[in-house]
Amino acid sequence: MLKSLEINNFALIDRAELNFESGFTVITGETGSGKSILLNALGLILGERADFNVIGPDSDKSYVEALFLVDSKKFEDFFKENDLDFSSELILRREIQRSGKSRAFVNDTPVGLNILKELTSHLLHIHSQYNTVELRDVTFQLELLDTLAGLNNERANYIRFYSDYRQSKSELEKWKQEFQLLSQKLDYDQFQLEELLKLELDKHNYDQIESELMRFSKSEELVAALHAISDHFYGEAQMDVHLKNSLSSLEKLVGIDNAIDELKNRLHAVRLELKDIASEADQIVGNFESNPKQIDHLTHLLDDYQRVLRKHQLNNQDDLKHLKNELAGKNENISDLEQKITQKENSIEKLESELHQVAMDLHKKRITASSGISNVIKEILGELKLKETELEFSLNQASHLQKDGVTEIQMLFSANAGLGKVPIEKAASGGELSRVMLALQKLLSEKKTLPTILFDEIDTGVSGDVAQKIGVLLQKMGTNCQLIAISHLPQVAARSNTHLKVEKEKSGARTLSKVMKLNEVERVEEIARLLSGEIISPAAIENARALMN
Length: 549
Prior knowledge:
By secondary structure, the chain is α/β, with parallel strands linked by helices. The chain has helices at 35-45, 72-81, 113-120, 138-148, 152-198, 206-217, 219-234, 239-251, 258-287, 292-312, 317-383, 424-427, 430-447, 464-477, 490-493, 520-532, 538-548, and strands at residues 2-10, 13-19, 24-28, 61-69, 89-97, 102-106, 109-111, 124-128, 390-402, 405-414, 422-423, 452-456, 483-486, 498-507, 510-517.
């Protein structure tokens, strides 16, 4: 509940501190006395845009500070999410400076206006005769019906279910977009993979192939060199014959001189080594016969390998193997993704079926409850002198799942007997809409814990018995929530638990507004003034006492 409101250097108010009680508080005052200043000050607390023209002359800034008593359980999550220190005494402060700066604080912590708005939407609701736009909002209408029907738990359950459903659909859509992008590259990636697979990178060693082809390219020179070795040893040079003859000559001298023996042994070893070299050269020549088909095959292999290397701007065979594995992995990824999409589609189909059943159950309960609620509203409107008024919730099944079910709602209204019911925004006058809103707010106050409600002259345009009925209704609502009403009606003021009065006074060259809490005597005089005007007669005093009693 709103415990206090402090206003400083704001319009015609130098400084005011208002203390509020639970129950029904009325604020009265002559036209132009400054009641709208209170609304504007509270508007700042609610996070509305600042009008810097309201800054008074005493300093270059104005501030408004409100103290609320709040339930820790209700706001615990909000404060954690926004990293705010929680206290059951919640201080909200708004400062505006002549330089055009505006700041907001929650328990002395600076916050953005979006956070302030979200928080205060659960603390204070201002409603005026001209602020009935909620009644035209189908979301509000459906929330209203669910609250009055006691279906808030079922509604919350559906909304959680629907949120999971939407999240699953969003995830599926993301996967499908990813699959589409991968599919667009799939053909090209597959072509590149097949190109790499044809190289048989795990089978061939392309560095070795390149060396082998290099050897084949020098084959004629190699064969000529090898033939020369054999020719020199066995051919016309007769190297072997000369060595053999030399050995025969030395063998005849064996035993004469040790040096000659050593020389013979060395010559024998040389002849054997040269003979072995010539034999091995002949063997290599035999194994080195040119194979044009093999050379052609290896040349094509190497050409394909080097072309693919250049294409991908890679350096070696290991780089190509890595690319091949990467492309193969993409194919596996898209296959896995396709399987995940299929599984998700099946899951969503099942989820949608279950969600539709939950929505249909909620829809049926809404239909069942709506007629009884309409009858209760009709009774309350009858008390407010709208006996012929009818209000009906027209409920139809939507063609698809929506965020709050499959119910399409329209509030239909008829102000007079014999007239067909039409959408409420097309039929009801401002005064009728105000009383409809009063009736709905009364029912809501009985069904759930409402924030502080401030009615701004919602009783304008009524008098007599209707005013009396509105006063009684507001008094009853004050037993279920903190209710504040700005009013000109003595019948309404007389029903309040607390009475605040706004009035102007001269202070030097300035006219200021001040707010004061009235005692019982002052209340009687103020209600008498509302009854009779500036000249308060004894009869007006008696009438005021009668209204209060």
